[in-house]
Design brief:
Layout lengths: L1 E5 L2 E4 L4 E8 L8 E6 L6 E6 L11 E3 L7 E6 L4 E6 L8 E6 L16 E6 L1
Parallel strand pairs: 2-10
Antiparallel strand pairs: 1-3, 3-8, 4-5, 4-9, 5-6, 7-8, 9-10
Length: 124
Amino acid sequence: VQLQASGGGLVQSGGSLRLSCATSGFTMDYYDIGWFRQAPGKEREGVSCVGGTDGRIGDGRTYYADSVKGRFTVSRDNAKSTVYLQLNSLKPEDTAVYYCATDCPPRPTGRGIWGQGTQVTVSS
């Protein structure tokens, strides 16, 4: 079972990035897939989630943290076993390592499987 986040990079304030979470080894359709981020010296923050058929939040339903609502969009392509996070109107405070997991904010169970993160850096 693997999840691998990619698509991070360095972008100017106001710019955009699209993160991908490629999954393998399990049927992604069933699972909620969440995005989390952690900035240096800060606690991990739940960013977004998209529901799976057997998940907690409901098939296809989405969650966004208030800090990203209206700027980030989560989507899933079950045929490609991939979840996407579109980041628009980026701000320096969005700088963090972004992770995807089979867990969902705002109340993750702590039992999810996590992938390696991808660094997003937003310059002012």
